[in-house]
Fold this sequence. Notes:
Elements: E1 2-3, E2 9-10, H1 23-29, H2 33-41, E3 48-52, E4 66-70, H3 76-88, E5 92-96, H4 98-102, H5 104-108, E6 113-116, H6 119-131, E7 138-140, E8 179-183
Parallel strand pairs: 3-8, 4-5, 4-8, 5-6, 6-7
Antiparallel strand pairs: 1-2
Helix pairs in contact: 2-6
Amino acid sequence: MEVSDEGSVDPPDAVEPRPPADPQKKAALNLNLNLMLLAGMTPKDIDVQIINDYVTEVTPDIPCDLVGITTTISTSYRAYQLAEQFRARGKKVVLGGFHASIMPEEAARHCDAVVIGEAEETWPELIDDFRHGTLKPVYKSESPPELDSLPVPRYDLAQPEKLTGWRLSPWKRPEVVPWTAITAA
Length: 185
């Protein structure tokens, strides 16, 4: 592990396998509404999959074009490891969440774009830029989203079959996933 003069931390070079998690305990603590909300904002012609790293093993060989990873301070090492693995396979990676918003310069070293603040304001632009090959290094929201204009979250993508104790929509996930969102553990 390396710590820079600015106090930011880079994960170790070797990626250690994580021990198996208790899906009931960890998933209940980390059912992120933000990813389901962004999936609801994504144009209908883009297939979206949400992978919860607490309950599903994440492999960087997932067939996708864009990977969005949300991270908190406590999950930043894992988020950076995943981001580096996906980028090594030529996939574009976007980091967002609390940690990326607080430490955007650090996060930027591990991804192609950083979302600072509430992603609801910048998500449509980010997707449009990605489609046109003009992804910017930083997307920063300037104000909180208007909550009454947000779409219904995509609860169907929350891997309900792996989350016991939660009542979620019975919809099924799409078979093909050219875009993937991951919650880092």
